[in-house]
Amino acid sequence: MKLLVFGLALLACKTQPAPPPPATAVVFVCEHGAAKSVVASQYFNKLAADRGLAIRSIARGADPQAELSVSAVEGLRADGLPPVPGVPRPLTASEVRNSARVIAFDCEQPVMKALRGMDACWNDVPATGEDYARARDRIRAHVDAMVEQIVARGELRVGSLFGSGVADGPQLPAHEPP
Prior knowledge:
The protein is of the alpha/beta class. Helices cover 37% and strands 13% of the residues. It has five helices and four strands; from the N terminus they run αβαβααββα. Helix 2 links the parallel strand 1 and strand 2 (55-61). Helix 2 crosses helix 5 (132-153). The model is unreliable at 1-22 and 157-178 (pLDDT under 50).
């Protein structure tokens, strides 16, 4: 009996647990959480995964609308990227505190002014409903630059947050509470 217990314990020690999900460290916030932030989040997640970064993003809204923007959903599908399932969600204080970066769009909009002090404010992106291709290209340029910056700094490579349980490289600093 002791041999059976010992054998099971040995097998349990050799079994590798499933890796935890990637860290959510970037939050994109647009007014309604339905278009610009969704497009930015999907492109960021694709580029981060392609580059082997253990960092992911989420899309949020300052004043979320009921549904995702049709122009963003159709544009992402045409680009071969699935939109995030579900409905737009509001930005929470916890997400700001636990993120490494918060990127806001259109910070001169009344509902967005409180986000002007975050990491970046991308005011140069047109509405996806007006010109999806132009909006996407502007968002991609910003996202590409951010991912390049993360790569250049060696931040959050796969395995740096997880694996041994100790980060083996520099991490993006978390925000202080607002």
